[in-house]
Design brief:
mainly alpha, 6 helices
Length: about 130
């Protein structure tokens, strides 16, 4: 873990690295927030509730479980209940949202894997991919 943390010092273009990191987290939050509008019980909760649920859920995945399953569900469900969403409705929300997020990551991973197979090796070496 420490090696991964200290590898940030070797980044060639730090502003671009920070921009990409913030953009990824922003898109991740936007996906989470937009799903609030897909359910009647969460549609009126607003961006603050979405941000609180997102942050608490993101912290919960520190617990080492496969794909954050369990801690993420518990954390987001608990926050939704605190904001007044019924227990069963909150459970439906977290199960559907987590499933959608997981499927999106799988689909994008498969796309990247296929795209990498068609990337010429010379171009990969020039970009620093080994």
């Amino acid at each position: 873990i420490w090696q991964g943390i200290t590898s940030v010092r070797n980044v060639r273009n730090m502003p671009l690295f920070v921009f990409y990191s913030l953009a990824i987290w922003g898109c991740y939050f936007l996906h989470f927030y937009l799903t609030f509008f897909c359910f009647p019980q969460t549609a009126s909760l607003g961006a603050t509730c979405a941000l609180v649920c997102f942050v608490v859920g993101s912290i919960a995945v520190i617990v080492p479980t496969p794909n954050g399953a369990g801690p993420w569900h518990f954390a987001v469900k608990t926050m939704l209940i605190i904001y007044g969403v019924a227990d069963v409705r909150a459970l439906y929300f977290v199960l559907i949202v987590h499933t959608l997020q997981t499927l999106l990551v799988i689909l994008l991973g498969v796309y990247a894997w296929i795209a990498l197979a068609f990337t010429p090796k010379r171009r990969m070496r020039m970009s620093g991919i080994h």
